[in-house]
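== Fold encoding ==
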Amino acid sequence: MTLAEIIKEHCSSLALVIGNGINRYNSATAINSWDSMLLDLWDKHTNDDPKDIPLGISLTEFYDALDLTSTLKTKNLQKEFCDFLEGWQAKPHHHAIVNWAKAHACPLLTTNFDETLSDAANLKLHHWRGARFTDYYPWASYFAEKEITDPAKDFAIWHINGIKRYSRSIRLGLSHYMGSVERARTLIHKGRGGQLFSESNHGEWNGRHTWLDCIFHRDLLFVGLGLDTSEIFLRWLLIERAKYFKTFPGKVKNAWYIYAGKEISMGQRIFLKSVGCDVIKQADYQSLYESVWDL
């Protein structure tokens, strides 16, 4: 099955999960690489000067190492990281993907911090009515033309790992991701009558009005996302998703990981297969971001 076939046959049940590949495609600069931005911060805040992320340390751990070894007493690394995102602009493929999602009432989840996708459609930020807002975890906040009624059925853009305008929400280090895991675990497994795995919640579980509802109740299509071992939080959620489907076989949803370029590792294939995600390689990056999204 190809990307074109997936979005044609499953358009009514999909949620798109978009990574930073969408910003790197057809980009004339490497500054929009997470690796490059973290290395720039390392150069600014420490006495060492690595040319790339060394073997033996993940991106998330590299950020924590930077935070621990920084020579500056006063710093806000999350805010400084957000400063790198200033001036990013939507390109034709951003517009095409967002327009496709809008036309098919498809939720769009992104691991990116920048607001390029929402800018592509001139969307406004909304906060779910009745939900307690926190700029640490704005999981009930979304970009849309107007307020939506159902996260899993309406088009909106949701930010999994934080939003640029709320620098404290940005998830960069291992400690940040573990905080997200704990927050999600509370929503999924705790609270009388509101646990996701409870048969008596009638769909009104604790995370019902957040992007988490899309993870468990929509088919997922991953595009432009590494989903490697640095994606601790999202990979943990996919494990929880697989456990949920094992508990409730009648609620099973599909998932596809689409990629181009160099081959992914055998370990990544094993992981993705174990959580029910089909792996599909496209001929090139153009096949991911261009004419396939034409309405």
Summary: The first strand starts at residue 14 and ends at 18. The beta strands are 14-18, 108-110, 124-127, 141-144, 157-159, 219-223, 255-259, 278-281.
